[in-house]
Amino acid sequence: MPAAAPLSERVLAGDIRAAARLMRDLDDRVAGAIEDLKRLYPHTGRAYVVGVTGNPGAGKSTVVDGLIEHYRKEGRRVGVVAVDPTSPFSGGAILGDRIRMQRHATDSDVFIRSLATRGHMGGLSRSTADVVAVLDAMGFEIVLVETVGVGQDEVDVVSMAHTAVVVTVPGLGDEIQAIKAGILEIADVLVVNKCDREGADRTVRDLTGMLELRPAGAPDVEIVRMVATKGEGIGELAAAIARHRTHMQGSPGGRERLRQRAQAQLMELLQERFADATVRHLAARGGIQALAEAIAQRRIDPYTAADEAASAVLR
Amino acid sequence: MPAAAPLSERVLAGDIRAAARLMRDLDDRVAGAIEDLKRLYPHTGRAYVVGVTGNPGAGKSTVVDGLIEHYRKEGRRVGVVAVDPTSPFSGGAILGDRIRMQRHATDSDVFIRSLATRGHMGGLSRSTADVVAVLDAMGFEIVLVETVGVGQDEVDVVSMAHTAVVVTVPGLGDEIQAIKAGILEIADVLVVNKCDREGADRTVRDLTGMLELRPAGAPDVEIVRMVATKGEGIGELAAAIARHRTHMQGSPGGRERLRQRAQAQLMELLQERFADATVRHLAARGGIQALAEAIAQRRIDPYTAADEAASAVLR
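ok -> structure tokens follow
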């Protein structure tokens, strides 16, 4: 494939460098990149997307590393999207966790891509969806999406997966349980990692209790015990993911999930277009900064300002 | 003031029940509520908004409770917006933390309003801004905005404050530091609470070190030691907030912050209007669900679908 061929063709031909280039172009919103993505779209829909989230320190990267190894032994190609909220303070520290995963970097059947938290308009979910689509089109059969934190953005990202895995550990204490509770809702599979620690039984019992509190008819959620650093429980986790996959495929719940995912992606894309249109409209009027300044100085109220901008931009 | 008077007039006259009603109407997007808010707007701009966030379990509610008491002793009226990510699992547990604060519920010069996490379109920041505007118009001189978690939404909410207070505690361990790092960036004042615990000196030293790593010219951030349950350090915290307030008022940094806050609010309001317009447009075409279904079944790609919907809705 000549380097002059469209990126999409090179990506479909398996050109890793072209894929990395396209992902970067999509991130930078280079004109034309989205056209490449449209051309790739008919070739997508085959990858199975597994989201992995959980408390910081729960060992998510080790779990993901174990899954990569497991799927590679089965001969499957694995894509990884590591979603990293970048901070001038913490960036390095968090990336440090991922060192273990780097041992797969020389395996051409493993593609690891890090994504930083973007701004609000066309955010993290959009970037993740784009990268997943590229990996999907390239024939990566499994795509693991791992998030560092447990904020709303990351919950959204993991909700887009076909199977959402939430990783926790024993002994985080009641205070931390409160964060965890927020992400329990999105879990299809719960992992209690570091099960060689004291309190593992209690954590499993607590989680079982929380799951029982859910309304009748709530879907089954398996709890898998792991010691990811020793590879214990990886096979069980992969089996639980496979059972969830089988259960969802062709079921009304599975179809509904795919629909919701498409709807969320559509709304993100629309918001981005709207933000662009608003910025263009206001550019002729001193820019959004000037209008924000007028609001800050209380020369106009934000509701009236929004009404006026919306009626100028919307049909 | 007769009950038949417009809500905005009753709110301006100090009618607490009218204020609660308006906040509920704004939440439910009752037609006309936004007109009341527009009428209130000229009466706003006097309240000083202090955001309080930090790790779950850091004792934020106790800190907020201490600040309420402090400001009440100074004779100031205090509004509190408690931002609670609602979850079927955790709702109750988190609200339990707030019991202490309820002792102010009988004080008519303290108004406490809880807000749950809303959906994406016109989310938490918008609801918070609305409630703050109502409290501001009613003459609450200090508005404390407290968040339970430390997700992106909550960081956004606290970023809207005039002064952002981030509360942490000694001994959370390196893993938890990673979450904290993400919110350090927004801190104007850092509180190390539970300073009677072991490791307090080290935590203060670590935070000082992290602050020193920031680029040259980064604004000063005071670190305040507290034992909020004993009331220790509340006066120091109030003094640090007052110093930040003085420093920001009239400074370029302070004006820029007000502008950014107005811009964020404007964009949220615009997104909501855009979402409404999109939903209306698609309603005639089977609804957004039908389009999402078409995307999920790969009859159309999401980028083309977004292009088409955007060109129908945008001028």
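Residues 44-249 of chain A form a domain with the Rossmann fold fold (CATH 3.40.50.300).
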